[in-house]
Structures are given as structure tokens and as C-alpha cells.
Design brief:
Shape: extended
Order of helices and strands: HEHEEHHHHHHHHEEEEE
Strand content: 15-25%
Distance between the termini: 27 Å
Structural class: alpha+beta
Radius of gyration: 24 Å
Mean pLDDT: 84
Length: about 280
């Protein structure tokens, strides 16, 4: 029962169509790249429609210097499927607590941790407390650095400085730290790492590391012409171990986020559901 409810809650968030949030963007698009802006749909009133899918949400949160735009996006993103999922999550919490009690555990967290190295919540709490003490000074230094960045930028752009780092501030100012403190320009870095070169390099590393060869499968049965299917074979024997689909672009089908699924193959004759070594 709990797994079914957790699955339904996940489907509510991931299943298209996602809600779309209209964000008012000034004529100068708040630090967002032209390539990003070209990918947005424009509403009749001149505002841009920014979806809550990761490929549109995260770049905006990291690059848009307009605080109110980031705040609206963060509120909408964290409220996805709130109506559908609230009752599911409330029931799920109750069922998990009941299951843990029936199995002799103090909490559901203790039940989950029992098979892991941490063993129980007390060990986790001790580890986190010790970790916090070691990092507290460094964390406070970084907090002060980010607040100074925010104070300086608010003064330059005419925004009120409230002396706080909000949830919608963090992605943006972490990106600003990379730019200001470490002189990292990700737009320039991208020019040196074209998609095909990076893909072939990563596949090559995995082949060497795992002792495999990846062979493209011609004319794969896939959901988009750009999707590629590979046969993974043992480098020594040539035996096929499995196959995997590689889709490097966000789509509504099967899902829009970065995932790894093991596919279940329906065999029509006789009708059976077979778990094959095929991954997406």
C-alpha cells in the first residue's frame, strides 16, 4: 500500500502536462541567455511562459538576477501537485509509522536504516551533529561571502537588501560565487565541450572501466528519432549483456527529467511480462 501511494505521488509530479507559470520578464531578460529566451513561449500580454520542468526551471533560478521572478518560480515549483499529493502524503506518513511499529521499529526512518551502514537514526544524528561542528566555521564564512555579494548587487541594481539568503537566492548566488570568486564562465566552458564529443568520451570511459563495448543498434524502436539504442557487450567474449537507450534531450515522453529505468518488455505470444536487461 505505501509503495503504491508513493508511486502515485511521484507520478502526479512527473506526469505531463506540467503546470505552466507565467513569469513577468523585463525587456532585458534578467541575466538569462538569449538561447534560453528563444526557447520560451511568449504569452499574448508579452510575458514569457516558463514551465516547471527542470531544463527551464534550473537555468532561470541560477541566472535570473530579478529576485521577484526567482521567488515566484520557487513558490510555484515547490507547490507542484500540492492539491493532489497532500492527502496522499498525509496517509503515507500514517501508514509508514504503523508499518514501522508493527515490525518493531521506533520510527519509519529506523526501519529504512536498519539494513544500511548507519543502522539507526541515533547514529545518523550523531554523525550529522559532528559534521555540523566541523563545517560550522566554513559555512558561516561562505554565508557572509554570499550576503556581501547580495548586498553589493542589491545596491547596484536598486533592490532592497534584507540581509537574508532565501531559498530562491541560493542557486543564483552559488552561481555568482563561481563567477566572481573562481572566474568560472560556464557559457565559455560549453564551447569546449560539444555534446557529441562529451558523449563519446563518457561512453569510452565506461567501456574501459567496465570491460565492455557499446555498439549502436540501427533503426531502434524509440519515442524520438534522436534517441539512440546501444548493445552492451563483454569486451572479451563479445556476448551481449544488455541494451540501453540514450536520450540526451528533455521531452514529455517518457519523462522530462534525468532518469534511469529498467524496462519491462511485453511479449505478445504468449502474453507475458518479461524483465529484460534493457535500460532507458
Amino acid at each position: 500500500m505505501t509503495s503504491k501511494k508513493r508511486g502515485r505521488e511521484t507520478v502526479n509530479v512527473n506526469e505531463p502536462p506540467h503546470p505552466v507559470h507565467n513569469v513577468c520578464v523585463r525587456p532585458l531578460p534578467g541575466g538569462l541567455a538569449e538561447s534560453y529566451m528563444r526557447g520560451l513561449e511568449k504569452a499574448d500580454d508579452g510575458r514569457y511562459k516558463v514551465s516547471l520542468e527542470y531544463p527551464q526551471y534550473y537555468p532561470l533560478m541560477k541566472r535570473c538576477f530579478i529576485p521577484e521572478t526567482r521567488r515566484k518560480m520557487e513558490a510555484a515549483f515547490q507547490s507542484r501537485c500540492k492539491e493532489e499529493n497532500t492527502s496522499i502524503l498525509e496517509r503515507l506518513i500514517s501508514l509508514r509509522a504503523k508499518m514501522a511499529e508493527l515490525l518493531g521499529f521506533r520510527t519509519h526512518a529506523d526501519y529504512v536504516l536498519e539494513m544500511n551502514m548507519a543502522r539507526n537514526t541515533r547514529n545518523v544524528s550523531r554523525f550529522l551533529d559532528a559534521f555540523h561542528e566541523k563545517l560550522k566555521l566554513v559555512g558561516e564564512q561562505e554565508r557572509c561571502y554570499i550576503l556581501e555579494l547580495k548586498r553589493r548587487e542589491c545596491g547596484e541594481r536598486g533592490y532592497e537588501f534584507d540581509g537574508q539568503i532565501h531559498a530562491w537566492d541560493l542557486p543564483y548566488y552559488m552561481n555568482r560565487v563561481e563567477q566572481v570568486k573562481f572566474s568560472v564562465d560556464k557559457d565559455k566552458l560549453i564551447e569546449y565541450f560539444p555534446l557529441e564529443v562529451v558523449t563519446e568520451g563518457l561512453l569510452g570511459i565506461y567501456q574501459d572501466l567496465l570491460g565492455l563495448t557499446f555498439q549502436p543498434v540501427p533503426k531502434p524502436h524509440a519515442w524520438h528519432p534522436d534517441v539512440r539504442l546501444f548493445s552492451a557487450r563483454d569486451a572479451a567474449s563479445g556476448e551481449e549483456i544488455g541494451q540501453f537507450y540514450l536520450d540526451l534531450h528533455p521531452r514529455c515522453v517518457p519523462v522530462s527529467s534525468c532518469v534511469l529505468f529498467r524496462l519491462w518488455i511485453l511479449k505478445p505470444s504468449p502474453p507475458t511480462l518479461q524483465r529484460n536487461n534493457v535500460y532507458y
